[in-house]
Amino acid sequence: MSAPLLGGGIIKGLAETARNFVGSYVKKDRLVTVQYPEERLPQKEAARNFPFLVYDGEDWQKGLRCVACQICEKECPPQCIYIVKDTVRKPDYVGKLQFQPKVFDIDTSVCMSCQICVEVCPFDAIKMDVQYELSTSDRFDGLLLRKGQLAKSNDYYRKIHPVEAAEVDGRFSAEKAKAAAKAKATAAAKPASMPAAAPAPALAHSG
Amino acid sequence: MVETMDQIFVTSKHWLVGLLPTQCQPVFSVILSVAAIVITFATLFAITTLLERKGLGRIQNRYGPNRVGPYGIFQPIADGLKALTKEDVVPRTADKVVHYLAPLALVVPVFLALAVVPVGRNMAALDVDAGVLFFFAVGAATELSVFMAGWSSRNKYSLLGAMRAIAQMISYEVPLILSAVTVIMAAGSLSAVKIVEAQAGYWGIIPRWYVLTPWGMAGFILFMIAATAESNRSPFDLPEGESELIAGYYTEYSGFKFALFFLGEYLGLFAVSGLGITLFLGGWHAPLASLGWIPSWMWFFAKLLVFIAAFIWVRGTLPRLRLDQLMSFAWRLMLPMALTNILAAGAWRFMPAGITRWIGCSLLVAVPYVLFAGALAGRKPLVKREYKYAD
Description:
- The complex is a heterodimer.
- In chain A, 35% of the residues lie in helices and 14% in strands.
- By secondary structure, chain A is an alpha+beta fold.
- Chain A has a domain at 51-152: Alpha-Beta Plaits (2-Layer Sandwich), CATH 3.30.70.3270.
- Chain B is an all-alpha fold.
- Chain B has one domain.
- Helices cover 67% and strands 1% of the residues of chain B.
- Chain B contains 14 helices and 2 strands.
- Chain B has helices spanning 2-6, 8-18, 25-59, 75-85, 96-115, 131-152, 156-187, 192-198, 214-230, 242-245, 255-280, 296-317, 323-350, 355-377, and strands at residues 202-203, 206-207.
- In chain B, a hairpin with a 2-residue loop joins strand 1 (202-203) and strand 2.
- The termini of chain B are far apart.
- The interface between A and B is medium-sized, with 21 and 20 residues.
């Protein structure tokens, strides 16, 4: 009879659950449930689920960073990206001629959010979004995101992933500065026979 | 005024019955009683499902359902609509007739059992001389429905669940009835109404309820444990242990048939709680003489709600038992305790009133408990198992 009498543990347990029951009415911080549609937790910096396309400037059709190189399409493990390359170069938002994707679809019902497309993109054109309320009544067309739905501005990217976006912006401005310096050097190396060549205003991404 | 409120349902029933021609009156009277039982307890079932989910939520520091209506009070309606609109799937190889009848065979006896419980003064729908016996007899019929469900589903989980349920219910039927025997001995009657009447009056301010005697207290605790097991409530909900049996004998039930099983289970809980109140807690009697002005049926339902709260509390606290623990608890603790408790009740009957009777009867309950519980708990210590042939 060294063990406590049968039933003692039950009393202890009942006291504990009673404490929880009363405590949940008295102390609000016991109720940890976030009442989802009304209140949400702030999103973590690392949050990500489906990819989107970044564009610079105001007009998404002109400003897409994507040049339809199709690397992401080839790398995508579940093959959820579908790209049709445009046949002609079109001027982008700074007027530079670029290939653009004529069609860029991501089937989010297939996408497994692996982020490989983001990692392989040499142009920082595709990034991970944080939008998670994607439920739809149409599982075919509703979950197939078109180019227009995928295109989101660089400002949006800065908002959802500030650290990453700052890093990308920094890289772009460094490249721009380097290109500007190079252009200046070539301009200086050339004799004055070709005076006042325009100092290449259209140097890539201003961000 | 007090009298009117107390008897309001009885007098209004008499008035309604009196409106009809004489030859229709008996049938109409029965229909009214049945309708009252069905509506009251079905409503109580709806309220209980909500209270249970809310209470369990709070015990686990959650809100519980709070989406349908203010504070989620319309949740039972939403649940009911969902159950009604769901597809009723019957397995192709099932025994269709038995599969169909099983939920009915659960709900009907439970309503019959509820009929003998006096829910207020003059408010037992069926006042038979052997009311308690009738209750246990129809209560045992629920076991049949469980096995019907398990067998007819043609599913191994259903069958295993049903066999567990049968084993459990038969094992706990014994202490359930034996613990009720003490009250029948003391009251000298099998009629539920007479048993309640026998508990009328007060010793000073203390009500003359059987639970306030040593054997009554022990009998009450035994009865409630057995009642928990009989109604398949946690911690004795092995028959539907979802971790090992999906949902036990419910596995192949969906839609409204599942809802009927659910209803039957809760009604069984109310019925057995109602009997516990009748046998040990003075039925519809007020706990204090000064509170006698509150209608008797209110007291009954107040006590019933306390019971429901206690069941929810226990469900929120205890984990599920293992089958061997369940069985050894029934046969090695509950049964011997129920038998010695009958002895204590007999001693109480024949000893002269006074402090010696109290001490004597308390010892007759406490000493066997310590011994039996010690024997149950003090098993051989666990040792490392030696495998002779495996290596």
